[in-house]
Write a structure and sequence with these properties.
about 500 residues, globular, homodimer, about 35% helix, alpha/beta, FAD/NAD(P)-binding domain, 3-stranded antiparallel beta sheet
């Protein structure tokens, strides 16, 4: 039987056993390992042998996370003198600015993701990916402790020479009771898919004959808590989805009302209020100035109010003497303060801005080359460039994909030129020690920010204030990202989704 | 504020509250109902008023199910003299023959579904859809009891004049212990998505450094239990997915083994065995002839062995005197035996074939026009046509999409011409009563059956035996269905998915 093709064996079997469908037939489709093992092949295929070991020539770089920061770092890393390991429970990179579009079905979930293994395959570097979650970082022994993400929860330990923490943040519920149980988030692709199903189920439910008028009113009320670009864009997308597509498919009377009202304005914006509690059917709010409380009945609620530090990062902060901080702090080179081989980027960290006044005496001494106790004009001018480089008067950076992507690419560039810059430092003068810093500090270039508001309106912040621009300019925004981060694969999928949607409208199935 | 557009209000608010992102802002996106209600509009929009009432001129047709049978019936129904209500927990029709393709990502989940509301929108009939599950059929009072499918489980009752049961069947586990907890099914779109995620997670897990060789071997072993076309096609698709795409993305040594072995034959077919138990890591089997038992370690198992009657249908069968049967029985006109206004089609029913011998004396009397006690040749010939029409010596029909679709379209045709055929019956002679039957009995036309075996091989049953045909002929099969059932929308989505897949390969993200 060994040399028969699968088809031949199948058809022969079928003829031999005409009543085959009444038996239980077992097909064992063996994946990679099986056949090799069962034939007793010598090489075991176990990857553990290949793990970079301490003392090997190549430095081991471990990247935690496959979001904007981690993926951008990985994509831009070109130096073959590292052994790279990527650890993340998510085996794909998600193009998060399109998540609001996924919620309403204008873009497919799969179109906004790119498998990490595809990215790795394209690189000529030594990269291993583990689908696992890091639950402990030990800075002293230079180890990260990991747990696989499927049900068996295998645990293992990975050694590093350099660690790049790019794990992102968790949703901040501000400890508001009921949020975790009752609200949707909009951080992951799965969140977007769940929101989509819930919106459609709300409409289906509103049609049921048993509902009271009040219940029907409640079920059709969708609440977005939070006023950041994600929340605004989602509210706008949802409004379009409801007014352009969903109402047409449902009861004619509901459609008539909805169309009349949506053409005017279907979104009710409430500012200066905060949410104090969420139950399964109601959101309780309080007006901040007056303390007045009220409740909003809802069918679906999306919580989109900001981010907080993950527990594993909090634990790590305690180890390295940052226990009193709220966010992991790095220096201007993205190196975690209190460590010398750990970097942190993206939403999980913030750059601790040095203040000129703290360093002023050191700067003065350095600039006062003749040790006269006073600075000449020339001495002052010479110091100025270095001062401007290190103290850019930059405020805290917003936690956006743009920042994370730029940090990832900056750090990769540092790693790519590590040797070269150690020999010929290109950074500003060290004020407290001799010589120069190896690298220039990270500088964020704000490329503008767009919040599509549905229909033909998009709000653009370019930079400074928000202005209204045409819908088409949205493309500009996508292309800013697109040129940096996204493969042709993903780009063409998204364009094809838009075309499908343009031709057929959005889809109302629960899928 | 009322006349400002949403965008104007948003940008104004943003300027007034520059620190807006630190507040909790509430957007309430009202769906259909809300604005209408809050403005105190007189019309309530409650759909319950529109429900067809008893005694109204139009007959109320209730369809249970949105699978092949129910959707085919709905699509082919053209007679405007009915009030139609469709009840199903699934608000879409799924093109199930493509589910194996969804499991490996060659076709998108959304591409194989069509929202029921889209189908309804295109019809000029009075159709209402409820997203709910029927949990009790009361044939005496002509009511069906329903429960909405979301978490609140609203209950309501719907009256009918004609009931069309097209609820499909449940998976038959043959009471094998452990199947429900540990095996995947391949009946619904969600099943296909889950299988996809599990296969990829198995590969990710196999890469982990902690796994023993035995564990790695187990995790990469995929088992399909059941030898029907679905199981075969899935095994073949999975084999292609693993050997053509997945192995390339994973460890090089595994890939080398896998490629070598898969090019020969990666599927191990075991017949004449039955599964006796499934644990979370092992399947226990027994050879039917010898009773010898063995165990198969597995990473993922798909149970695809056949179907059984749903509990709600079992309960209904007790009411109408079919308690001793295993499947709901109908006559040749798809009418449930023991009722006169309930029809059943698709996987949930079987046509009870009349046996000529049971009716032979009635036939003889009818044919013996001169009551001579003997049939002349002429008398016999005249009876023959009617006999052939009613006793086609047909075996039980297979539970396939083809049968369900043809039954739906047959029954719709009967409903379309109900009045006309009541006046001018076109069916065969009634042997026990006077006159003719209203309609010709349902006749199944077997259009062949194809089981794509992966790669370039497809097995075709055309009709009678299985033969190997080229892969391209698969298109023939799809087009047989496609011409009958599927909208241009779905067809073009599927073609575009195939093109994507052809260009970019299958995707390995968990999405």
């Amino acid at each position: 039987m060994r040399n028969l093709s699968f088809y031949e064996r199948f058809s022969r079997t079928f003829r031999e056993y005409p009543s085959i469908s009444r038996f239980l037939v077992v097909f064992a489709v063996s994946g990679g390992g099986l056949v090799a093992y069962s034939e007793g092949n010598i090489q075991t295929g176990a990857k553990i042998d290949e793990l970079p070991e301490a003392g090997s020539e190549k430095k081991r770089v471990v990247i935690l996370g496959t979001g904007w920061a981690g993926t951008s770092f990985l994509k831009n890393l070109k130096n073959p003198s590292y052994d790279i390991q990527v650890i993340s429970p998510r085996n794909y990179f998600a193009f998060t600015p399109l998540l609001p579009n996924v919620t309403v079905g204008t873009v497919e979930a799969r179109s906004v993701v790119e498998p990490i293994r595809n990215i790795i395959k394209k690189k000529n570097l030594n990269v291993i990916y583990w689908e696992a979650e890091c639950y402990r970082i030990d800075a002293k022994t230079k180890k990260v402790y990991c747990r696989s993400s499927e049900k068996d929860k295998e645990e293992f330990v990975v050694d590093y020479d350099y660690l790049v923490i790019a794990m992102g943040a968790r949703v901040n519920t501000f400890n508001t009771p009921g949020v975790e149980e009752n609200c949707h988030y909009l951080k992951e692709v799965e969140d977007a898919q769940k929101i989509r199903r819930t919106v459609i189920d709300c409409f289906e439910k509103a049609c049921l004959p048993t509902l009271s008028d009040d219940e029907r009113k409640r079920v059709l009320q969708f609440v977005v808590v939070g006023g950041g670009p994600t929340g605004v864009e989602f509210a706008a997308e949802l409004h379009d989805f409801v007014s352009e597509d969903l109402v047409k498919l449902f009861d004619k009377r509901i459609a008539t009302f909805a169309e009349e009202n949506f053409h005017r304005d279907g979104i009710d914006l409430r500012t200066g209020e905060m949410v104090v509690k969420v139950s399964d059917k109601e959101i309780s709010t309080k007006v901040i100035k007056t303390g007045e409380t009220s409740t909003i009945p809802y069918g679906m609620a999306v919580w989109s109010t900001g981010i907080a530090t993950r527990p594993v990062v909090m634990d790590f902060m305690k180890q390295i003497g940052q226990a009193n901080r709220r966010v992991l702090a790095t220096d201007e080179w993205l190196r975690v303060e209190g460590t010398n081989s750990i970097y942190a980027l993206g939403d999980c960290a913030t750059i601790n801005q040095r203040k000129v006044m703290e360093d002023i005496s050191a700067i003065f001494q350095k600039a006062d080359k003749d040790s006269s106790g006073t600075l000449t004009v020339k001495e002052f001018q010479e110091a100025l460039d270095d001062i401007c480089d290190r103290y850019p008067q930059m405020k805290n950076l917003p936690a956006t994909a743009q920042v994370a992507a730029q940090q990832g690419s900056y750090l990769a560039d540092c790693f790519n030129r590590m040797e070269q810059c150690t020999k010929n430092p290109e950074g500003p003068l060290r004020f407290r020690e001799f010589g120069r810093h190896r690298f220039r500090p990270f500088r964020y270039k704000h490329l503008g920010q767009f919040a599509p508001l549905g229909g033909e309106q998009t709000a653009a912040q370019l930079p400074g204030d928000w202005v209204s621009i045409g819908h088409s300019s949205q493309w500009l925004w996508y292309s800013v990202y697109a040129s940096k981060q996204v493969s042709w694969h993903t780009r063409s999928l998204v364009v094809s989704d838009w075309m499908r949607c343009f031709i057929f409208g959005r889809d109302s199935s629960q899928i």
